[in-house]
## 1
Amino acid sequence: MADDFPDISIDFFASPQRGMATLQRKGNLLRSTDKAVTNAMKFTSGGSDTIDITRYDAFAFIFGNGIKALMQAFRHHRTVDMQGKVKARHLISRPAASAVATGMLARSMAVSIGKLIHEVLPAPLFIVSTPTPTSAVAADNQLWKDAALLRPIMLDLLRQSIDALQAELPFTFIHQPEETIIKGFTDPAYSKGSMQLSQTSREHHDDEPHHMNARYGALMMTELVRTFPAGAPR
């Protein structure tokens, strides 16, 4: 990726699960008091356990936002047009579904940390969609049996929630490219060979549906860089 974008320098900070939710702002720094989180940040960034907000021209987040999160949210409560092979336990109205989707994004780690950053400077913010799982997730999970039916509905709810929050916190959302989707699921070619977030650098097993590989990462990074405004600092 460095050869493809020689004028861009990127630092990665990550922690398993919801570790980054522990970040707090102290002056210009984002830091965590959780030792496991600071260790993970050091490992993924190459040595830094804090984020100096003033060092960066833009920030991108991948924190569980997208189709996957919405599918989980509507596993029991669905609108009439969400009814497919799996019947909902409770029917809700479309306005109620929209309110749920908007509330989820408003309370997300990405938006929370984005607000901390904007307390210091108005840097461009990008929220990158968490990848949709591969079809292996449907083998023992009824939730995903209607993935092809639900995907366009969830995308519409997601777009509405993005629009609703722009006045509160301006950001650009990077959607998963449709070219990576097959019948509502991510093409397994983008999953095989994915790596665990650990110092052992072990691969996930082939049927692990939630994590994507370097090919997918490069594609999403390209989508992100293409979204940068022309002439913006790099």
Note: The mean pLDDT is 90.
## 2
Amino acid sequence: MWSGTTPLADIHIGATVFTQGIAFNPDDLNPNANKQSQTRSASGKGKHFGIVLEKTATGIIVAGTATFNGSTTIVGQVKTQSEPFWIPVVPATKEGGITHDPVSRSAGDATKHKWINIRTKHTIPGTAFKLTPEAYPASVVATIKTALGM
């Protein structure tokens, strides 16, 4: 994992952070996950990856992401009605009820299947965050913000 934290002033738009405070809609959770994991994910008490969409004077606004424990497909990982609320990240593909085309990272593990949740944006207060090596280009951030109505 990554050590230390990065000050808010040094966090850039499109960066990925590992943080608490990302609360997923219950429909967006894997119905096969254990109950404790579902409860933490729905409450925002579990730690998740989030793509920084905006910075504020007191924190960041992020979109949560999920790998569904290394799954290569989203079908069966969330309720069917939830599929339109996800954007696939290459190598993940547009499948099932997903309506958005896949997007690419600008840095990070390009072999990992990942999906970006576009049901809810999350405001995470703080002055420093655990930054990861993964990042997304401005065009992907714009796509996410548009999907979230920002």
Note: The two ends are 31 Å apart (CA to CA).
